[in-house]
Amino acid sequence: MTDANTDVFHIMSTCRSMRRLKPDPVPEELIYQILDAGIHAPSGGGVQAWRFVVVTDPEIKMQIAEVYRRGWRIAERQYLEAGAELDGNMRAAAYLAEHLHEAPVHMFACLRARKIHQQRLAGPNAVNFARIMGGSIYPAVQNMLLACRALGLGATLTSVTCQYEAEIRTILSLPDFLSTYALLPIGYPVGKFGPVTRTPVEQVTWFNQYGTPFPKPGTSE
Ligand SMILES: Cc1cc2nc3c(=O)[nH]c(=O)nc-3n(C[C@H](O)[C@H](O)[C@H](O)COP(=O)(O)O)c2cc1C
Fold first, then answer.
1. pLDDT exceeds cutoff 90 at 19
2. Is any atom of ligand 1 closer than 6 Å to the C-beta of 159?
3. Ligand 1 mean position to 122 CA, how many Å?
4. How many angstroms does the Cα of residue 216 sit away from the middle of ligand 1?
């Protein structure tokens, strides 16, 4: 029998964005454990260019939250103007924006761009290369989200502050060679973990060539 808190499939299927967080502090040992899960992820060339900034200082969290709130309000207006629904997800996201400063931990996942990265990012394949850059940090971020879930901590991958990087750079005293890729607000959740809702595999997968459905095992005639 597997323990629900260590079964990776159970953890993945219940790793929802948890945006309503209690202000109670998170023990440093747990923050370290989350970071340790992050650095076990793969990265392009095994370069491990990830760098993290853990923020618990109330004054600094308040400054981050102000940038986030402003960015969220603009994004929310754009989503609604584009016809998005004000559903549960949007409401939870709005709640997070208004309460971000209360989250006990703000965890920034950053990537150190080296000279060769900067040259490629300025070159003709910049867009494709940007994907590889993201691919060298988001596996670590996902490991951290799963670790939070396994430890009973709520978290959300957020990206609003990436669009206001100059301000975040100043607030965190980040050097030029670091770019921010995600901000994870982490804390004990107010609500319960529940199953994530996703479009099933067979609706998003093709077999051998685009257009040929990939059947769910046991359903073909
Ligand atoms: C690249 C990326 C950026 C995201 N940015 C934000 C964000 O800025 N704010 C937010 O509240 N949620 C953000 N999310 C969380 C998604 O909205 C969320 O994962 C998705 O709606 C599915 O919901 P669930 O995680 O509860 O299953 C982001 C997720 C990803 C993968």
1. yes
2. yes
3. 28
4. 27
Q: What is the pLDDT of residues 176-189, one digit of tens each?
A: 999 999 999 999 99
Span from the CA of 159 to the centroid of ligand 1 (angstroms): 8
Considering the domain boundaries, does residue 97 fall inside one?
Answer: yes
DSSP letter string over 27-78?
A: PHHHHHHHHHHHTTS--GGG---EEEEEE--HHHHHHHHHHHHHHHHHHHHH
CA of 156 to the centre of ligand 1 (A): 6
**Nearest-atom index, ligand 1, CA of 75:** 8
Number of domains in the chain: 1
Element (H, E) at 181: strand 178-187
23: CB partners within 8 A, 6+ apart: 102, 103, 104, 187
Say whether pTM exceeds 0.85.
yes
* Ligand 1 atom nearest to 161, measured from its CA: 8
Neighbours of 210 (CB within 10 A): 6
Atom 30, ligand 1: which residue's CA is nearest? 157
CATH number, domain with residue 53: 3.40.109.10
Q: Does residue 158 line the site of ligand 1, with CB under 6 A?
A: yes
Does residue 205 lie within any of the structural domains?
no
State residue 124's pLDDT score: 85
Tell me the sheet residues that pair with 110: 51, 180
* Residue 55, domain member (yes or no): yes
Range of the domain at 78: 8-193
- The DSSP element (H or E) to which 136 belongs, if any, is none
The pair of three-digit structure tokens given for residue 208, joined into one six-digit string: 């051998």
> Residue 121: inside a domain, yes or no?
yes
